[in-house]
Amino acid sequence: MATGTGVRRRAHIDLSVIRSAVASSLPDCTADLRADAYGHGLIPVARTLTDAGVGGFLVSRVEDAAAIADEGLPARVVVARTPADIPAGTLVGPEMFGLDPTQRSAPAMRLEAEVIAVKRVPADRGVSYGYTYRTARPTTLALVALGYADGILRVASNKAPVKVGDTVGRITGRIAMDQFVVDIGDDAAAPGDPVILFGDARKGEPTVLDWADALGVAAPVITSRLGRRIERTYSA
């Protein structure tokens, strides 16, 4: 199997998408930033929303409230376990990030990995441990450097769509700790090629809502589970 040396694990967050999503709700809305802003990064998102004029934040922990205070952000902060009244209709949450299936807005996050190995295999080859998937014919398998240690839900095995280069396939076989496999058929791939787990449908990429539909898991759960090994990068 041909292998590569570099490993890309990156979640790119477009802060302009988040800012645009709350524009019509300012200044009285409270932004739900629980679970590290649903995996998008508490402080970068809080800073962006403060600059946009959001009046307050809902967070998961006292430590999150302290982190916002340490940044010198003046917004009112409510901790989820603390009794507090948030006026009806003023709380904005998953819809800010494109995670609400009832509001098909632009996604804020693009989750990217890379191919680390490629192998041509014959028909009836078992893939990953347990062999829950066997190849139907001779095919090409791409090994991707993300796994359940990065917060990729194991229920995505044999279900979730991914884009390898220009090919849209799905996760093939069981997700391992640090990697998963994609059957790309007769298409070509090489170590270092980009792999988009979810991103922007306008670019031909699967979306996090596609993942939610395929897995039967809410989109905010999928992004909130992403781990620290995944680098977060931001654009304004």
Structure description:
- Helices cover 20% and strands 28% of the residues.
- The chain has 6 helices and 15 strands.
- The protein has helices spanning 15-22, 34-38, 42-52, 62-70, 208-215, 219-224; strands at 2-3, 10-14, 30-32, 56-59, 76-79, 91-92, 109-121, 126-127, 133-134, 139-144, 161-164, 167-172, 180-183, 194-198, 231-235.
- The chain has a 6-stranded antiparallel barrel. The protein has a 4-stranded parallel sheet with strand order 5-4-3-6.
- The longest helix has 11 residues, at 42-52.
- It is elongated and about 60 Å long.
- The termini are far apart.
- Mean pLDDT is 94; it is low at 1-5.
Beta-strand content: 25-35%
**Side-by-side strand order of the widest sheet:** 7-10-13-12-11-14
Helical run tally: 6
How far apart lie the N and C ends? Answer: 40 Å
Total strand segments:
15
Oligomer: single chain
SSE layout:
Layout lengths: L1 E2 L6 E5 H8 L7 E3 L1 H5 L3 H11 L3 E4 L2 H9 L5 E4 L11 E2 L16 E13 L4 E2 L5 E2 L4 E6 L16 E4 L2 E6 L7 E4 L10 E5 L9 H8 L3 H6 L6 E5 L1
Parallel strand pairs: 2-15, 3-4, 3-6, 4-5
Antiparallel strand pairs: 1-7, 2-7, 7-10, 7-14, 8-9, 10-13, 11-12, 11-14, 12-13
